[in-house]
Amino acid sequence: MPVTDQAFVTLATNDMYSQGALVLGKCLRRHETSRLTVVMVTLHVSQGARAALAGVFHQVKEVEVLDSSDWAHLSMMGRPELGVTLTKLHCWALTEYTKCVFLDADMLVLCNVDELFDREDFSAAPDPGWPDCFNSGVFIFRPSLQTHGRLLQRAKENGSFDGGDQGLLNSFFSDWATEDISKHLPFIYNLSTSTIYTYLPAFQQYGREAKIIHFLGAVKPWHCTYDHQKGEVSLGDGSLCHPMLSPFLKQWWAEYWRPGAPSFTQADVWQSPEAHHQKAGSIGTTHQEDLSLHVEQPSTPTASKETGTHSADTPPANEGATSDWTHPLDPPPVEEGGSFGSGALESSQSEEPVLELSASIAEVAIHRTAEEEDQEHKRQWEEGCADYLGKDAFDNIRKKLDKFLK
Ligand SMILES: O=c1ccn([C@@H]2O[C@H](COP(=O)(O)OP(=O)(O)O[C@H]3O[C@H](CO)[C@@H](O)[C@H](O)[C@H]3O)[C@@H](O)[C@H]2O)c(=O)[nH]1
Ligand SMILES: [Mn+2]
């Protein structure tokens, strides 16, 4: 039975971030959350994207865009686009729920994380850049129109020290750093991928315990290109991503293409320009336009109907859900018949070309000689694709060095 007065909430103000929200919603469902799921959308989210989101989330709620337009502070972070993150503040107006967990749309949930609802308002994880501040990508809160009003008031009067929601929220919940340690979420609930660059040994040590991955920063998974043929993920400029990041990006794409709920492509999105004529609703007023959609068949979003009411009693079906632990950093499981899967992609039940390809790569790998293996390993090392969790783990490198220096 779903818990109908608690919800996971996310936000998408455009179709790009809607892709992230879609993956997030799919992950939550696949890991059988017992809570409802809500995505707040704004004017510029197209009908195509909304339909896809409605196939995954219990509620698609239109809210007004709030933008700090604070170029000075935002450019200090190199992220002028983040003014709209103030729109996040509207989650406090979702008073049909007693407790919520907000998750950024650039999150990958790796297992069931319903235990987050045991935490109290206001809980969050430290920000990797300034750990006395919390990162506003994951937080537990109790919706309240009073808090919503106070936050908006503060935004109007004082702005935000970083131009986005995180600065404002840290000023508002300023005792988070010192008041109550139980309100500090473990970092594994908001493991920023930037840690790969800032503290690689810790990432190696604890990365396997991660429950939620946060693709924090300017480059998001949907900016990357996934080459099914080569099984490689490259960044926008064509360069290959960091080898430690690759399993998570592949997992993100596997979730994106996982069947059982619709995905949408930019092509779908561009085909629906009528989206831009949607009227914006305003949250927190009696005239708000609630675009929540009843969803009977998540796999057929076009069958959804707009009701104007909240659809807590008709959660999307959970077909295809699995509670399997499919951590991208886990070694690929040995399957019957002795063939190996490809880690992240292996977890997909999809019949996408991805899977067929991973199987053929596995077969090739099995028939390789030891010498060929060594050569391949050397080639990957030289290309900067080190296997930090396996052959190239610190311990193994040290052993090699010790042997060499003897
Ligand atoms: O054009 C945008 C930009 C952001 N978002 C939403 O706002 C969230 C935050 O933006 P994001 O690009 O994820 O920011 P981060 O790179 O994670 O940067 C940090 O700084 C932001 C601004 O303070 C905070 O919102 C983040 O939680 C914090 O992790 C996204 O995940 C989306 O849910 C949109 O819908 N549209
Ligand atoms: Mn984020």
Automatic annotation (TrEMBL):
It catalyses: [1,4-alpha-D-glucosyl](n)-L-tyrosyl-[glycogenin] + UDP-alpha-D-glucose = [1,4-alpha-D-glucosyl](n+1)-L-tyrosyl-[glycogenin] + UDP + H(+); L-tyrosyl-[glycogenin] + UDP-alpha-D-glucose = alpha-D-glucosyl-L-tyrosyl-[glycogenin] + UDP + H(+). It is found in: Cytoplasm. Residues 297-312 have a biased composition (Polar residues). Pfam families: Glyco_transf_8. GO terms for biological process: glycogen biosynthetic process. Signal peptide: none annotated. SUPFAM superfamilies: Nucleotide-diphospho-sugar transferases. It is an enzyme of class 2 (transferase). Its cofactor is Mn(2+). Its EC number is 2.4.1.186. GO terms for molecular function: glycogenin glucosyltransferase activity; metal ion binding. Glycogenin participates in the glycogen biosynthetic process along with glycogen synthase and glycogen branching enzyme. It catalyzes the formation of a short alpha (1,4)-glucosyl chain covalently attached via a glucose 1-O-tyrosyl linkage to internal tyrosine residues and these chains act as primers for the elongation reaction catalyzed by glycogen synthase. Self-glucosylating initiator of glycogen synthesis. It catalyzes the formation of a short alpha (1,4)-glucosyl chain covalently attached via a glucose 1-O-tyrosyl linkage to internal tyrosine residues and these chains act as primers for the elongation reaction catalyzed by glycogen synthase. Residues 297-355 are annotated as: Disordered. Keywords: Cytoplasm, Glycogen biosynthesis, Glycoprotein, Manganese, Metal-binding, Transferase. The keyword Membrane does not apply. This is glycogenin glucosyltransferase. Its main location: cytoplasm. InterPro entries: Glyco_trans_8 (IPR002495), GNT1/Glycosyltrans_8 (IPR050587), Nucleotide-diphossugar_trans (IPR029044).
